[in-house]
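Input (structure):
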């Protein structure tokens, strides 16, 4: 779920005023209501209106002149201001979505690590009665598989085993996917039926 972004009230008012200018409610060269009138209209303090107007003045949308009040200066700048905040909202929302996905990914990886470890532990303790035990086998240095991807060599089609992890340089890579590349001294963790073990050995060592 995307995070709801709540802007400060003065910023919301400045965006609303910019929208009113962009729509032509307040025409360039004319005066906007005084701060007290705007404060009553938006049900906020005059100080909040002052901050909203300063923001619009900084963006060159209005001009505040002593004795003349708030004068509309540019409709084009009002459009730019509105678009700027739309883009900021979009970027913030995307950033939050990425953070959420990464958090979910970390949780899934932790769960997968737990399940793989349980599967390995279970199979070691009950290997004589487990028809779907994990297989661990290393890739020889002179193997012709080195440098090729799992998909490229049709690993599952040739062995009937599914690779669920790779032990590489003291790291465990979980769910490597079809585009993972075979490397020297990799240890592959696979699951498959009992017959898959011999097929895996034959396939790997025939490719030496």
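Output (sequence):
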């Amino acid at each position: 779920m995307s995070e709801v972004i709540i802007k400060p009230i003065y910023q919301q008012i400045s965006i609303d005023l910019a929208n009113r200018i962009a729509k032509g409610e307040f025409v360039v060269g004319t005066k906007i209501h005084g701060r007290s009138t705007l404060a009553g209209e938006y049900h906020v303090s005059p100080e909040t209106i002052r901050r909203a107007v300063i923001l619009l003045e900084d963006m060159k949308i209005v001009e505040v002149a002593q004795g003349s009040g708030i004068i509309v200066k540019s409709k084009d700048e009002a459009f730019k201001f509105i678009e700027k905040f739309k883009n900021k909202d979009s970027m913030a929302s995307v950033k939050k979505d990425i953070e959420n996905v990464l958090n979910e990914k970390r949780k899934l990886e932790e769960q997968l690590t737990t399940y793989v470890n349980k599967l390995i532990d279970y199979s070691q303790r009950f290997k004589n009665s487990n028809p779907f035990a994990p297989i661990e086998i290393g890739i020889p240095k002179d193997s012709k598989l080195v440098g090729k991807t799992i998909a490229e060599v049709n690993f599952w089609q040739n062995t009937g085993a599914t690779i669920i992890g790779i032990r590489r340089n003291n790291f465990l890579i979980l769910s490597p996917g079809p585009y993972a590349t075979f490397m020297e001294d990799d240890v592959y963790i696979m699951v498959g039926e009992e017959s898959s073990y011999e097929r895996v050995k034959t396939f790997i060592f025939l490719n030496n």
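Notes: Strands lie at 31-32, 62-65, 69-72, 134-138, 162-168, 171-174, 187-191. The radius of gyration is 32 Å.
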